[in-house]
User: Fold this.
Amino acid sequence: MSVEHDSIGMVSRVVRVPRVILLVAYDRVPKRHVRFSRYNIYARDDNTCQYCGQRFPRVELNLDHVLPRSQGGLASWENVVCSCHRCNRRKGGRTPEQAGMKLLKHPTRPHWTPFISAAFSLRRYREWGPFLNPVDVSYWNTELEP
Assistant:
């Protein structure tokens, strides 16, 4: 058996782990609510400081309130971004404008769980390619009208 395939060893043989499993039916449609969490904010912002634009390991990132809580800002998708420690200290308890800083992109609520976009990446297994090209993903993720 080729070394490039994942497998499970059994007593009398080796079984290849499938890379693609076809789902023909499911019980209910998954919820569309995206949990407001540190993990999902980091995933939404691609572990990138939204002020300086550099990517960092998660341990080197903070969550920053664009409109600081001291000025009435809320902990919400539309007000929280990733920032590196340096930019977070520089901004302090001020708005980006007050600190002379600019956001790379305005924070928004994701339409689906950010980790799913990583799963749809073709970086994982080439066998997924026929099932996960961007056109198909867009087709299957578009909300249908009633």
In short: Residues 38-99 form a domain with the DNA Binding (I), subunit A fold (CATH 1.10.30.50). The longest strand covers residues 61-65.
